[in-house]
Design a protein that fits this description.
Elements (H helix, E strand, L loop, with lengths): L6 H15 L6 H8 L3 H4 L6 H14 L10 H15 L1
């Protein structure tokens, strides 16, 4: 029986691995083990490691709470950078 996952589940688990082990700890094998499936199953959801890393980047970007823009572009840039720093 083929395991079924959502892309969101794969994304969440991949982000958890990166949080715990760093980007170097993320592989198709480590992700498959965390999801209790085989590595080849993951290729039904992501094309390759690059696509998997893009899912992680998207997950981190979704956590960035950008402040409302003001008339001060320099302050806005600093605030956006700080928000990104806190998300990472």
């Amino acid at each position: 029986m083929r395991a079924r996952f959502t892309v969101a589940e794969i994304q969440q688990q991949a982000l958890a691995i990166v949080d715990r082990d760093g980007l170097a700890g993320l592989s198709m094998r480590s992700l498959a083990a965390a999801l209790r499936t085989g590595p080849m199953t993951l290729y039904n959801y992501v094309k390759d490691r690059e696509a998997l890393e893009e899912l992680v980047v998207d997950a981190v970007a979704a956590q960035v709470d950008l402040p409302e823009p003001t008339d001060d572009w320099a302050a806005d840039t600093r605030a956006a950078a700080a928000a990104l720093w806190h998300a990472v």
